[in-house]
Each structure stands twice: as C-alpha cells, then as structure tokens.
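Why do we care about 3D structure at all? Because function follows from shape, and shape follows, mostly, from sequence. That is the central idea of this module. The next example makes it concrete: a single protein chain, its amino acid sequence, and then its structure expressed as tokens.
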Amino acid sequence: MTKPDDRLIVALDVANAIAGLELADRLGDSVSFYKIGLGMLTGGGLALANELKQERGKRIFLDMKLFDIGATVEAAVRGIAQFDLDFLTVHGDPHVVRAAKSGAAGKDLKILAVTVLTSLDRADLDAGLIVPGDLGDIVIERAARAFSAGADGVICSPNEAALIRALPEADGRLIVTPGVRPAGTALGDQKRVATPAEAVADGADHIVVGRPIYRAPDPRAAAEAVIAELASPQARQPNR
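And the structure:
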C-alpha cells in the first residue's frame, strides 16, 4: 500500500456525486485530498464534498473560481465556509480576493486566487482583450497582487511556479498547480503543463491531477504512480 501524500489533489471531474464516490472507493486510502469543481455543482458536488470530508476524513478543494461584485463574493464565501472545507478558488482580482477573505473570516478555509487559467495561452488572452505582454509576466503580477490583497495562495501553471515562489509576497503562501501530466499522458485541453516532479521541484505545494488518474484502467495504480514520483529525488525543492 502506498501512503497517501496530500500534495496530490485528485480532481473528481466526473458526471455526478455517485460517480465521484465510486471513484473515491476505487482510490481508497491511497488519496487524501480531492478537488470538486464547478461542473459537479449541479450533480451533488456539495453533498459529495461533505461526505468525503465529514465521513471519510478527506481534505477538500472546492474549485468554484468565484467572480462577482465584492458583496456577492463575500456572501457566497461566507456560506461555503460553513461547510468546513479546506481550499476555495476565486478569481485573482484584488477586490474579489479581499471580499472572499472577509467571507472566510474566522474559518480555516484557504482562499486561492486564480492567476491565468492553465488552458489559456497568449492567443486566448488576445481574444479576451487582456492586456498585452508575456503571459508569464501577467501571471506573476496577478499572483503578487492577489497575495497583497490577502490570498492564502494562488493557482498557476507549473511553468510559473518557480517565479511566483521567488516573490517576497509568496513567503508562507500556497502554490497549487493544475496542468500536471505524468510523462506519456495526453495533454487534453491543458496548454501549460509539467510532470508532477517538475511542478513540485519548481515550488508547488500541491498538484492537481484529474484525467490521467480517473480515466486510467486502474485509477489507484495511476494515483500511486504519481505519489511515487512525488517521493523521487527529482521532486525535491533545493531552495526550500
């Protein structure tokens, strides 16, 4: 049996809560941390989060990527914070981060700010009329501003993890990286990717892996392979 490593967060991007529980059953005690995203919201996502957290002792990352006026974000986060979950994502705009932190006041819920989605590249930013410039520079600036607004951590691609980790504002903050693909697996819709060992070596505290695990013939074996890679010398962070 491979001991679980909570640096690995498995994305339960499946059809509904029933499928999510079935996957969690297959993964068993090899996985201790799960991500439940927006696509699961109407399929019983909050109920699944509660069962995994309260009845099975798992850690839960609720990936909602909230974005709205401050009062609405604060109210939404205050409601979510009552569920005693671990991580929640909001967009990294400073007013959103500040509102989310207000909503989570007094709770252990960590607010993670999205910098630039890992499925986007410079052409996508151009299409969305986002300020010109190098994508990596934009990610790093958004991370710095989110930290200054009080974010407990940021979401970024593995490509930017090392530069964000080097920011003075990043001291004591979390870096969580989706877009992680074990060697030899399909990229899917991700455009800025790295292997698990590369992401952690570059400063990520947690990596999010979905399809390479839940679409594998043996999801538990796939998860255990990622955990083994995280324990390898290649995953060490020389400067931390």
